[in-house]
Amino acid sequence: MSELKPSLVILAAGMASRYGGNKQTESFGPSGETIMEYSIYDAIKAGFGKVIFIIREEFAAAFKAAIEPKLAGKVELDYVYQSLDKFSGGRKIPNERTKPFGTQHALLCTKDVLDGPFAVINADDFYGYEAFQLAYEFLSTAVQDGKYASLGYELKNTLSDNGSVTRGEISVNEAGNITGIIERKSIFKKDGLAVLEEDGEERTLPLDTKVSMNFFCFTPEFVNWSEGEYGKFLDENLDTQLKAEFLIPEVADICINAGKAELKMIPTTAKWFGVTFKEDAAIVKAELQKLVDEGVYPANLWS
């Protein structure tokens, strides 16, 4: 166990193709806060000591100019850049490939800066303070190499009103350890139900189905181990699948089913919200304003 305070890794290098804008730095809070600022605020309150941003280098100057004045002196900051060439092992990246290689590749880019246990989240998701409390407790008392965790949200608390979403459906055993995370790539609301579309067919999922929202707790060993899996991924997909992604839930699933680790599910009833689609923005702003009105957050996070 490390005596260092856990770090928070924030995935902020995505292209936001469905959203149609740079949602990582868009203002949603009443004083111009981004969604990830609420996560950072909650993480600092829970006890996290460092924030590591994964971004694209071409946006670094603008990103730092927007975030650093607010966070100066409040938490340690670090940055890593995700780019297509990193960890390619000398393989030639097709010129037609423009999409980043996914969230686990982004996490792999932190390999040289991680110094202890950490949580990883999406920049454009609101997770709720309870989730950071639970993650901090696990990272401070229970995490070790080969013993990791994922926050498990109830599906009903994670759906968008404006289109289909991808969610990692979690299966657990009697010990509360995850036995599988299956990426379900088209789940949407329909007549008050959660509907999954796969292979041209629709079926409902229980509203309390536990799903991964890319909120995981790891040690650096998981990142180191994934480098070998990334090489396999590139060999299988690089020349034939221009949009294939190396994703944290899928790599975690490989890890646990290969017997390399246990992944505990930490259940939370927290309400998730995020901006998958442009139409979600107004809903997120209203939800944040409601939380401010209720006194959960100050009107200005950093004043």
Distance, first to last CA: 35 Å
Structurally, how many domains make up the residues? 1
Structure annotation, total helices: 7
Global morphology: globular
Helical residue percent band = 25-40%
Structural class: alpha/beta
Proportion of beta-strand residues: 25-35%
- By CATH, the architecture is named Alpha-Beta Complex
Mind telling me the CATH class? Alpha Beta
Q: Give the number of DSSP strands.
A: 13
CATH topology: Spore Coat Polysaccharide Biosynthesis Protein SpsA, Chain A
Instruction: Give the SSE string.
Output: EHEHEHEEHEEEEEEHHEEH
**Average of pLDDT:** 91
Low confidence ranges? 15-21
CATH H-tier superfamily: Spore Coat Polysaccharide Biosynthesis Protein SpsA, Chain A
Major sheet: 11 strands, mixed
Cα-atom Rg, whole angstroms? 18 Å
